[in-house]
Amino acid sequence: MLSLAEVLAAIILVALTAYVLFGGADFGGGVWDLLASGPRAARQRDLIARAIGPVWEANHVWLILAIVLLFTCFPQAFSRIAIALHVPLTLMLIGIVLRGSSFVFRSYGGGGGRVFAIASLITPVLLGVCVGAIASGAVGEHGARSTEPFYSAYVAPWLTPFAIAVGIFALTCFAFLAAVYLTLETTDAALQDDFRQRAIAAGTAVFAMAVIGLALFPQAPPVNDRVVALTAAAAMGAFWSLWRRRYSLARIAAAGEVTLILWGWGLSQYPYLLPPDLTIAAAAAPRITLELVLIAVIAGAVVLFPSLYYLMRVFKGKSGLGYDTRP
Amino acid sequence: MPDLLAARSQMAVSLAFHIVFAVIGIAMPVLMVLAERRWQRTRDPVYLDLAKRWARGTAVLFAVGAVSGTVLSFELGLLWPRFMELAGPIIGMPFSLEGFAFFTEAIFLGVYLYGWEKVPPRAHLLAGVLIAISGAASGIFVVIANAWMNTPVGFTLVAGAFTDIDPIAAMATPAALPQTLHMILAAYAATGLGVAGIHAFLSLKGRTSAFNRAALTIGLIVGAPAAVLQPMSGDIAARSVARRQPVKLAAAEALYETRAGAPLTVGPGIKIPYGLSLLAFHDPHAVVQGLDSVPRDEWPNVPLVHLSFDVMVALGIYMALVGLWAAWLAPHKRDLTTRRRFLWAVAIAAPCGFIAIEAGWMVTELGRQPWVIFGVLKTADAVTPMPGLIVPFTAITLLYCGLAVIVGRLLSRLIVQSPA
């Protein structure tokens, strides 16, 4: 039976998963904007902008939600992360600001396309670097290091081959998701094929980076064999359905693959929030806070999910709600 | 630059930048909804044009507000990890609720901005109403978290740690109502008069189109009542501060000695007898605590807090007078664009609300120093141990300066392009 703290840790992982599946794909869209090429480059960029436009703001809030839940329910973990990963987190924030604002500037004719694309490339890497640093135990051990010289205290924990590999892995995952989703954003077969090829290439890169990342993990990787098998099955499913141009199926398989990767990470750390020593139970806020937050999350979900469903149905359904009378 | 000062400066820059966009994000949806509703009722295309143009501007401002708000949610920990470690379980509640309110706002903003031709008119207007409601709600929740820092309750302090915490009692902190009321009114007053002021100025420059008149009127409908009510909420806020944070009030009013029948110091050297006692306690003979009631090292920066307070009050009074003037003219149903003196008064009010908001937050935040949680945790004890904080401070400052320039250019282009 899960404890209340574990339930909330799982909810944070759900929020993070949603951020990766939705917001991550928006970053991936920026990557394909940067790499737009061939005779249809302008139309590729246009498709990306139209796909991201209505939803990126909502997709982005998942990150805020994850952070707020983290500092409310696990304040000690948040504090340690914020101290040890100050540098990459600040750089990531600058990336988020540049990405979000340049996207909207560009949509309203203010230029900034290059900034949008480059920030989309760098931000996911930094997010992945932070996750890698946490998973490798560098953040959990940081308490004793904060008095050491700047480099060993504030740079060395995250500037490791493993963390950087996770950073690039995150980028490939986001690009993979975006390419798969984009095949469903157009009915133009040529554009679909562009993104199908990109999805297959990015999916292969995801696989390669997963192998490299696991090889670089400081200890024997504590992964759950069954989760690995499921992830591999989802990956094969994604490749197969892309190959057969079954794009709806590919979307499900790709999202499933990335979700399993994230949950595999979560399971491999369990019961630690920050390995090697800070457990979920030890980092948890007092019970009253956890109870109230759980109530707030449930109440929030009652408002949120129908609203999100509506947003996605309007903009991501085949033809919106079928309502198209021009004013 | 010492690290503590760099951290405080970075927080100040981040908040000062974000608050402008946050305030516009709260109030602009109300203006958009009013314009759209008038269009749906009158079918006058001017109002549809207005709603759409406002929506475009709001999209830019909202996006910058969203990303700068994300920066703040991280900075709470990046700069003040000890504060968050202690306070997270207590004030996380309003932040969590804010998260959901903001989420709702972002979802329906997407529907509103991109859904003009995709959802039925009623659903579109409803999306606008939901943005306005959730925008106000997220503002209220964030200000509640700040109010708790001013009047912390809902815990027992044992050896520097909180026990017996009660997050609900913490949200019902005494400063919550005065602060949220003051802030929400400020958002409507600043944005409403800001919009009205821009269009008043354009009218003075000869751009007296129906579009311009409609924008001016809706701006005044939102801004004027809020500006008129604001001094009253200011009075409630000041009396709350007088009772619960007397040192902040003493700094705001530059009152060095505790005394009965305290005078009000307005600007340099002008004193109104009994004024402060009257304002703070509604009693000319009430004793007002001076700065001498606490040790010198617990004083905030008195000149800066006092100056900020006077600036806020002066601008607030000016805006209230402009609001009253608008109320006086309203029943006459005359064309406002022919009243040049009134138009000048409104045009001058355009930036006033935003300056007053910045000044007001200077009073709240600087006036609480040296405490981050008043009477519980000093700011110096909350700061991150990481050295070299001048670097992120400089980076964030440059980033925001650049963004401000781009946003300014984009908005002025949107305004210039509007029908003359």
Sheet with the most strands: spatial strand order of chain A: 1-2
Q: Give the CATH class of chain A.
A: Mainly Alpha
Strand content of chain A: under 5%
Number of strands of chain A: 2
List the quaternary state of the chains: heterodimer
Structural class of chain A: mainly alpha
CATH architecture of chain A: Up-down Bundle
Overall geometry of chain B: globular
How many beta-strand segments of chain B?
Answer: 8
The level of helicity of chain A is: over 70%
* Approximate shape of chain A: globular
Global Rg of chain B: 22 Å
Q: pLDDT average of chain B, as an integer? A: 91
Detail the poorly predicted runs of chain A.
Answer: 319-327
Sequence stretches where pLDDT stays below 50 over 5 or more residues of chain B: none
Largest sheet of chain A: 2 strands, antiparallel
β content of chain B, as a range?
5-15%
Number of helices of chain A: 13
- Structurally, the number of domains of chain A stands at 1
Averaged pLDDT of chain A? 87
Order of helices and strands of chain B: HHHHEEHHHHEEEHEHHHEEHH
Blueprint (SSEs and pairs):
The complex is a heterodimer of chains A (327) and B (420).
Chain A: H1 4-34, H2 41-52, H3 56-73, H4 75-84, H5 86-107, H6 113-135, H7 150-155, H8 161-182, H9 189-216, H10 225-243, H11 247-269, E1 272-274, E2 278-279, H12 280-283, H13 287-316
Antiparallel strand pairs in A: 1-2
Helix pairs in contact in A: 1-2, 1-3, 1-6, 1-8, 1-11, 3-4, 3-13, 5-6, 6-8, 8-9, 8-11, 9-10, 10-11
Chain B: H1 3-42, H2 45-79, H3 81-114, H4 121-150, E1 156-158, E2 161-163, H5 167-171, H6 176-204, H7 210-244, H8 246-252, E3 259-260, E4 264-266, E5 270-272, H9 275-281, E6 287-288, H10 302-329, H11 340-349, H12 352-368, E7 371-373, E8 377-378, H13 379-382, H14 390-416
Antiparallel strand pairs in B: 1-2, 3-6, 4-5, 7-8
